[in-house]
Specification:
- With 255 residues, the protein is an alpha/beta fold.
- It folds into 2 domains: 2-79, Nucleotidyltransferase, domain 5, CATH 3.30.420; 89-250, 2-Layer Sandwich (Nucleotidyltransferase, domain 5).
- Helices cover 33% and strands 27% of the residues.
- It has helices spanning 40-45, 64-72, 100-113, 145-155, 175-202, 216-222, 233-242; strands spanning 2-13, 18-24, 27-33, 48-57, 78-79, 89-90, 116-121, 124-130, 135-143, 209-212, 228-229.
- It has a 6-stranded mixed sheet with strand order 6-9-8-7-10-11.
- Helix 2 links the parallel strand 4 (48-57) and strand 5 (78-79).
- Helix 3 (100-113) packs across helix 7 (233-242).
Length: 255
Amino acid sequence: MTRVGSATLTIDRGNSTLDCRLRMPSGERRARLDPADPSAFECFLGDIVPEKAGGLSVVAGGLDAACASLAARGVRLAVAGSALRCPLQIAYDDPSQLGVDRWVAGCAARAKFGDALIVDCGTAVTFGVVSRAGIYQAGPIGPGLSTMGYALATRAPALPRFDCLPAASFPPRGSLDAVRAGVGLGFAAAVDAIACKLEASVGLERLPKVVTGGDAAHLLRVSSLRWIHVEGLVHDGLDWLLEDSCPSSMRDSNC
């Protein structure tokens, strides 16, 4: 094993992937792994022993295997929501209902932009607004792009399966392009409409609109809005929490 000084590992355990990022002085290693493959995480790390490690999971027990693997290397995984506390004020009646990935992304967006609207395009598409004052307003949750395509294929199996590619022509000239256009453009139109409605509802004008997640590239291709793409926003939030960079006035708050 090789202990690498200043190496930081961050893990985002979503509904369907184990998204890992290893930042080292020599560069960055990033992979979306299959959570059901117990060897994938070990292969990702190789012989590297990170100096710091932080993670989150939206699935109960989703970090157990990674925790055990890191413990065998003498590394403690700091988990958001317990070891890494939430520094934001959550505008939910019951803040514990908010997914940890959402407020971690909010920490990164606030550090980068101050006020910001955040859209995470994953298995689900989630919306949120964070203010420079440290208030996180959670927005709607809906089906992600691939989830919409999967639902259509399940309920209408005679149709071509949506493949996340843009339609070759519009109006469509075949069934596959029709599905691509219907799902792809429908997803982007829904995201745009919800983002505009959320922005209008929170009383903050001309918010930077930040998009992240595995299907962000599709939204960037077809959206009518201007988006800032931050590929590893949740990882940036974990890095920020690990560095304990939040102001002292925020450290005593909790979500």
